[in-house]
């Protein structure tokens, strides 16, 4: 093994460069629209994004930017309508009525206006084609359609199959040219649901209190979604003005990353996106955040009694400022992926329960700080003092050149990983554009990182982390919840569900170059070697042509439900040392090599991942081997596990969403629910360090697959890997995939858990479908897309779009591992809704589950949606061999995408209806609800279902 001094010197010679497929072409269309293109054929898909430099700060506290994001899915004067000439006057009057609604506080007048709005909406739907845009995206190869609003920007994005590039450009340019504010009634109620959903998150209001104090009078002080009062009285005329002001070509970017055809692309973009209105957004005089004066303090409330803590926040620099690089290095010296930071050490060595830096940069404001959580019954003041002591070391330059170069290497490695996959690179480019930066400036930042002297980090630490700051202290308590009541609207009808717009007919006329599905090739995409005579250790290699980073995943087939201690083993290994090293020394050894080590316990296996540089593969592997086979039994770390369990349970009690997951587990599996196999509080107290070391040794002797992604020859690394993981000592057969048999019920039923603090009700439903034949599985896979898969599904349309009964709703078939014969399939539906809508939502969802899938248009959309998913399913580089092995271990001899394609070729709607009638329709279902008993109408529900009440405590320990 090379000595550290030599390795520290070798770090300086590492030259990170980007592959040819990771370059970016920057163009500007004739109307001023920015276009960034990054061609990459490593994945058979394109990730398309339209980014707009317009966000919540441009419509302070009104929610307009966020409302408008929702409106952009409703179509245009050509998409989503059968007759816009007749529809337009009605929509204009609806906008006028919302203006009147804003101008009155009279309850009676508001009710009359809302009644008028409702009547107009019902009239307007006679011309609307609901969800037309989403259906067309799906029809023409799109998946993952979504959008997001931030303080500074709004982005619209999805993945699509390359042969539909022209269709995607036509659709996404059209929505940016002439959006129409149709079906706004349902969207308003959906945003109400979203607001209520955030209200149930215990972090939302404390974070809002902090931002208000940090940012005021800047618009960052207000929530992105807007105030409750603004949401009740939206201004559609202001939304239209927002669009005309900010959705202009000079304020927008089109970003395409993936396997698109470059020839003729500029002409296509000019013909489509070139029609977006030219011009720039106005330069606005936005007030700056008030600077802190001395030591200020803010108390926030969190409903976790066992947790104490505090934080310090300083105001620093916005996005694009030259000091951002130095501040990033400062952050990494405090905490980093290698767990060698000054604050990491405080946590690992037990001085504090937790301590982490806080760093956020927006376009007009930056903040830097830390939070510190003392050990239970210890002082927050002392915890703060411990962190300040470490920060002062950086201020004084008390860190080595070796530490400084190592954190630089970690950051560069993270940069490489940011651009490896099509999706991650697209997200990076979107962030760069919305921050006012470019790909060139990104590369310049990397060069600046390499040459930045340590004195710059010392300077920014002293310049920004001075005597003007905000101290935040946690108090136990809750903020009052703002609950937006359902407005008095009747649901809108949808008479034109199967209709086709003029724009849809136009898209049908465009040529399509049919491309075969690019599937995983089990023989060509990976190389494989057996590393043991008994066949229990196998090595798989995926060639990395993109960079010199490797990953080595050790996947041990051992289930934590059978071995509960394994569930905490990952946390324990993060805290201890071994091989003669302390934890800090171990992480320093790895960091000197540019490597990092992570542990993760999953349902069916335990993963140890080593990431590093290929030219240090041997040294990195030797460090990991030495550690794993000589892990310390450190009793002092056991208290941390107990404290972490106590905090996690306390947080879970206040989290209705996660409680609903456990309630569903209880309903499906009873005493075999996975959470019941977890260690209890008393188990944690009895647990010894030596028990976990023994658990690790058993794990290391269990069957495993080893997945290497890198550039080294498989035959050169195979003997080294075999030796490092002691392949000949692996003698225990693996346990395969985790599977629990769900409990069949003789009648439909409800399990209810009372959470008095919940604003919404969290509903999860399961329907046991039994053991299915292969033909039934194929039909149910397609039915799952029809009923609950995405924005075009029956559930999404009926529950959210037409009746606004939930913000999020969906369903999926939970198939068992294919390797387990005779195992049952369940169908799962999830939604959250206002408590006063629970009865209506459950009645509707149960009716939809039982409704025959006989809608021809929706069936065709489901077929195309499932096929599009198969086309864009191809995994990113570092997951390919793992995906292949997962399929092989389940008994597949080819990619599942090819199986889906073959299934769709032989399926008919009649076969799907038959399967639905056989295994879905009329079968008992189990409904689980976490909500407030005082707000959910249990009396009405009891008329239809027997109800069993479950205590929250039964879901915890």
Can you walk through the features of this model?
The protein has 957 residues and is an alpha+beta fold. Helices cover 43% and strands 17% of the residues. The chain is built from 36 helices and 23 strands. A 6-stranded mixed beta sheet has the order 1-2-6-3-5-4, with helices on both faces. A 6-stranded mixed beta sheet has the order 12-13-17-14-16-15, sandwiched between helices. Helix 2 packs across helix 10. The N terminus is likely disordered.
Envelope shape: globular
Percent of residues in beta strands:
15-25%
Mean pLDDT: 92
User: What percent of residues adopt helix (DSSP H or I)?
Assistant: 40-55%
Q: Treating each run of at least 4 consecutive H or I residues as one helix, how many helices?
A: 36
Q: Tell me the major beta sheet.
A: 6 strands, mixed
**C-alpha Rg (nearest Å):** 29 Å
Quick structural summary:
The protein has 957 residues and is an alpha+beta fold.
Question: What attributes characterize this protein structure?
Answer:
957 residues, alpha+beta, six-stranded mixed β-sheet, 36 helices
Summarize the topology.
Layout: H1 4-11, E1 25-28, E2 34-39, E3 46-52, H2 64-71, H3 84-102, H4 107-124, H5 132-139, E4 142-149, E5 154-160, H6 165-177, H7 184-199, H8 204-215, H9 228-232, H10 236-246, E6 252-258, H11 265-272, E7 295-302, E8 310-315, H12 324-334, H13 342-348, E9 354-361, E10 366-373, H14 380-395, H15 401-418, H16 422-434, H17 439-451, H18 454-464, E11 469-476, H19 502-508, E12 527-530, E13 537-543, E14 549-556, H20 566-575, H21 583-592, E15 596-601, E16 606-613, H22 617-628, H23 638-653, H24 656-669, H25 674-677, H26 681-686, H27 689-700, E17 704-710, H28 714-724, E18 749-754, E19 760-771, H29 774-788, H30 794-802, E20 809-814, E21 824-834, H31 838-850, H32 856-871, H33 880-889, H34 896-906, H35 909-919, E22 926-931, H36 938-942, E23 947-950
Parallel strand pairs: 2-6, 7-11, 13-17, 18-22, 18-23
Antiparallel strand pairs: 1-2, 3-5, 3-6, 4-5, 8-10, 8-11, 9-10, 12-13, 14-16, 14-17, 15-16, 19-21, 19-22, 20-21
């Amino acid at each position: 093994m090379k000595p550290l001094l030599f390795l520290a010197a070798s770090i300086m010679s590492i030259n990170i460069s980007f592959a040819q497929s990771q370059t970016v072409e920057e163009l500007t269309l004739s109307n001023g629209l920015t276009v960034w293109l990054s061609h990459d054929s490593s994945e058979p898909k394109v990730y398309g994004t339209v980014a707009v430099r317009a966000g919540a700060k441009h419509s302070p506290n009104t929610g307009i930017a966020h409302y408008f994001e929702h409106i952009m899915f409703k179509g245009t004067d050509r998409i989503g309508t059968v007759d816009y000439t007749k529809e337009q006057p009605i929509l204009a009057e609806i906008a006028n009525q919302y203006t009147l609604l804003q101008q009155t506080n009279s309850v009676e007048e508001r009710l009359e206006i809302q009644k008028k709005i409702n009547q107009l909406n019902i009239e307007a739907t006679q011309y609307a084609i609901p969800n037309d845009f989403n259906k067309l995206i799906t029809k023409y190869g799109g998946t993952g359609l979504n959008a997001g609003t931030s303080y500074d920007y709004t982005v619209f994005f999805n993945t699509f199959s390359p042969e539909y590039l022209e269709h995607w450009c036509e659709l996404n340019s059209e929505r940016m040219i002439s959006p129409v504010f149709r079906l706004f009634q349902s969207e308003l109620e959906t945003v109400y649901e979203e607001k209520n959903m955030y209200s149930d998150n215990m972090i939302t209001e404390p974070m809002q209190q902090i931002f208000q104090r940090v940012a005021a009078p800047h618009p960052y002080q207000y929530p992105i979604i807007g105030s409750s009062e603004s949401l009740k009285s939206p201004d559609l005329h202001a939304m239209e003005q927002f669009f005309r002001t900010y959705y202009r070509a000079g304020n927008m970017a089109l970003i395409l990353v993936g396997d698109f055809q470059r020839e003729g692309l500029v002409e296509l973009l000019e013909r489509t996106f070139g029609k977006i209105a030219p011009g720039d957004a106005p330069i606005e005089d936005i007030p700056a955040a008030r600077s802190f004066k001395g030591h200020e303090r803010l108390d926030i409330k969190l409903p976790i009694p066992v947790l104490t803590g505090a934080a310090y926040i300083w105001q620093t620099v916005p996005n694009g400022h030259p000091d951002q690089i130095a501040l990033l290095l400062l952050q990494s010296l405090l905490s980093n992926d290698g767990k060698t930071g000054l604050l990491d050490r405080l946590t690992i060595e037990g001085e504090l329960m937790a301590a982490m830096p806080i760093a956020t940069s927006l376009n007009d404001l930056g903040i830097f700080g830390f939070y510190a959580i003392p050990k239970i019954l210890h002082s927050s003041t002392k915890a703060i003092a411990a962190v300040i002591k470490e920060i002062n070391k950086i201020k004084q330059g008390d860190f080595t050149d070796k530490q400084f170069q190592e954190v630089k290497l970690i950051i560069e490695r993270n940069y490489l990983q940011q651009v490896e996959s099509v999706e991650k690179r697209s997200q990076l480019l979107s962030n760069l554009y919305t921050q006012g930066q470019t790909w060139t400036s990104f590369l310049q930042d990397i060069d600046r990182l390499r040459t930045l002297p340590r004195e710059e980090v010392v300077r920014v630490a002293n310049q920004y982390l001075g005597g003007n700051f905000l101290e935040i202290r946690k108090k136990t308590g809750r903020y009052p919840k703002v609950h937006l009541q359902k407005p008095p609207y009747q649901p809108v009808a949808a008479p034109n569900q199967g209709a086709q717009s003029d724009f849809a007919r136009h898209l049908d006329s465009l040529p399509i170059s049919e491309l075969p599905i690019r599937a995983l090739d089990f023989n060509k995409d990976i190389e494989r070697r057996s590393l043991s005579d008994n066949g229990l250790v196998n090595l798989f290699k995926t060639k990395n042509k993109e960079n010199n980073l490797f990953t080595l995943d050790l996947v041990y087939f051992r289930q934590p439900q059978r071995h509960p201690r394994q569930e905490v083993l990952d946390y324990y290994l993060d805290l201890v040392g071994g091989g003669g090293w302390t934890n800090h020394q171990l992480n320093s050894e790895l960091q000197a090599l540019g490597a990092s080590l992570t542990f993760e316990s999953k349902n069916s296996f335990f993963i140890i991942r080593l990431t590093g540089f290929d030219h240090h593969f041997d040294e990195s592997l030797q460090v990991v081997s030495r550690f794993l086979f000589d892990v310390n039994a450190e009793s002092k770390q056991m208290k941390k596990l107990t404290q972490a369990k106590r905090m996690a349970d306390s947080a879970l009690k206040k989290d209705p969403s996660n409680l609903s997951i456990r309630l569903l587990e209880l309903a499906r599996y009873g005493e075999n629910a996975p959470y019941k196999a977890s260690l209890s509080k008393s188990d944690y107290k009895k647990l010894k360090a030596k028990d976990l070391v023994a658990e690790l040794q058993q794990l290391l002797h269990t069957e495993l697959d080893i997945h290497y992604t890198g550039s080294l020859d498989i035959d050169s690394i195979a003997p080294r890997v075999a030796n490092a993981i002691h392949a000949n000592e692996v003698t225990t057969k693996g346990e395969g995939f985790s599977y629990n048999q769900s409990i069949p019920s003789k009648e439909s039923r409800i399990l209810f858990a009372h959470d008095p603090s919940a604003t919404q009700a969290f509903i999860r439903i399961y329907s046991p479908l039994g053991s299915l034949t292969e033909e039934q599985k194929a039909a149910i896979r397609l039915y799952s897309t029809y009923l609950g898969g995405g924005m075009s599904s029956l559930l999404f349309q009926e529950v959210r779009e037409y009746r606004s009964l939930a913000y999020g709703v969906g369903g999926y078939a939970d198939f068992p591992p294919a390797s387990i014969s005779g195992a049952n399939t369940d169908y799962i539906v999830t939604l959250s809704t206002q408590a006063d809508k629970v009865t209506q939502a459950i009645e509707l969802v149960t009716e939809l589950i039982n409704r025959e899938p006989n809608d021809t248009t929706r069936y065709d959309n489901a077929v195309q949606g499932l096929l599009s998913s198969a086309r864009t399913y191809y995994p990113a580089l570092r997951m390919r061999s793992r995906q292949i092995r997962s399929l092989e271990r389940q008994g597949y001899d080819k990619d599942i995408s090819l199986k889906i394609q073959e299934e769709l070729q032989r399926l008919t709607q009649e076969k799907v209806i038959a399967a639905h009638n056989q295994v879905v329709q009329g079968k008992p279902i189990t409904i689980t609800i976490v909500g407030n008993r005082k707000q959910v109408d249990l009396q009405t529900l009891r008329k239809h279902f027997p109800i069993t009440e479950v205590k929250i405590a039964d879901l915890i320990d």
